[in-house]
Amino acid sequence: MANEVEPINIEITEYDTVIMEINGVETVLYEGKPRPKAEFKPAPAPAPVVVAKPAPAPVAKKSPIIARKKRTKPYKPTRSLAKFGPGLTDDGQHSIHTVSFEDKVKLAPKDIRQKYEELSKYLVEMYDCSHRVSFGYDSYRVGKKVVVALSLGGVHLRINAAVDPKTYDGSKMKVNDDTGSKKYADLPSYIKIISDKTFKQAFRLIDDTMKSLGVKKKKVA
Q1: Fewest CB within a 10 Å sphere: which of 92, 116, 122, 182?
Q2: Do 94 and 107 form a contact (C-beta atoms < 8 A)?
């Protein structure tokens, strides 16, 4: 009995060629199809790396330099200053708000200067008040307490006193209330001296103020 050959299971594709040796001769049992050539596909190019550029630093805007215009027209003083006189400097740049009290007195009309001097003399001689002239007014003290202030506003003299303005409610004497003023917080009553009548009332306001503070008036010899 001839030797039996065990079958070999081999998976053959359509592209494989099968050759067997029979009686010492190689015989092609099956000729496979030619394998298709593999197409060469280049590898995809790498994605470009985008490097973010830093944002430029903000540039600070310079405020425009505005050239100040030179005054071409001659200076016209305010109504109040015009009555007092010309400005204090050659260029005429002063206004009534930049003039000191002393300069206002010098520039004031003669009758206003006389009224100021009489009131000042009355306070010093009759009540022994000391006084100090500041930029805005002339203040009068009894001891360390400021009791009266004389100032110039516009073209009139003004007197402020340390007495309650409500004292004059219903009175024929017109005393204004300056309670809300920070400048004259301790001198809430004032009179605008614009006539001979209000000038006389200013002396009465001084007397009433001193009486309320217990300051005695000197006797006239």
Answers
A1: 182
A2: no
- Which tokens is 195 given? 């006539």
Q: Which residues contact 187 (CB under 8 A, 6 or more apart)?
A: 146, 147, 148, 149, 160, 161, 162, 178
pLDDT digits (tens, 9 = 90+) for 75-104: 444 444 444 444 444 444 444 457 899 999
- Does the predicted TM-score (pTM) go above 0.85? no
* Contact indicator for 32, 15 with CB cutoff of 8 Å: yes
CA-to-CA separations, 211 to 10, 33, 104, 204, 205, in angstroms, rounded: 140, 139, 31, 10, 10
Torsions phi, psi for 195 (to 5 deg): -155, 175
Q: Which residues of the chain fall below pLDDT 70?
A: 1-10, 15, 17-18, 28-30, 32, 38, 40, 66-97, 221
